[in-house]
What does this fold into?
Amino acid sequence: MNKFILKSIFLFFIMLPQLEAFQSPLLKENITFYTENYPPANYLVNDKLKGISVDTLKAIWKHLNISEQEIQIVPWSRGYRFTLDENNTALFTMSKTQPRESLFKWVGPIFNSTHVLMAKKSKNFHFSTLGKVFYHNVATVEGDIAEISLHEVGFPSSNMATVSQIKQAFLMMQSDRVDMIAISIHGFSYLAKQLGFDEDDYEQVWHVNKIGNYFAFNINTADEVINTYQKAFDDIAKQRLRIKESYELPLAEY
It folds into this structure.
């Protein structure tokens, strides 16, 4: 029995470097994750961070049996800059576009987003061409994919009011400081629940885009980390489906 124990201890120490190598670099270097307050992907409820992407990320950590990493809530533009410039960082939830694709490493897609221009029904907007939309002003979140998409189609910068959070954009529209806001469809529904306004008083007046959302990692992140996260993401597919169902995500956004 003693020989068996000694042999087991010996084998453990022989295998230890290999075990550490298997874990590296996931368990050796923590990653700081940045996010914004933008429901239903990531948002605060009673000072607790939740949302489709938050729950998905925590499920990945649990599946990998690693400790939860730090998540910081910051304005989108700041989180984008940090993740672009600093090693061991990641940002979510980010739409994967062609200009961004080579700037980060990606895990996902978590879900799809349909971004639209929303306005008060009382405005009675009916746009037959995009050019007619240009005559009105819109509030956007700085650096958000909806804002970028509007710039790409030539929306006049002079008619765009840039804010750091979607709640600010809505309040500008509510007080008639702008005519419209750029927002995702499901994001607007959750905003209505959070702020307690009647969603039926507003309507979609223009479709901006539909795009996949991901976890975006700093470009210097080791491929081993990305591959490990992506495999875990794929492995928990059934759990991810339940998460999206729990947030009542429309089937078109899956």
Summary: Strands lie at 32-35, 43-45, 48-50, 71-73, 89-95, 104-120, 138-141, 160-163, 180-184, 202-218.
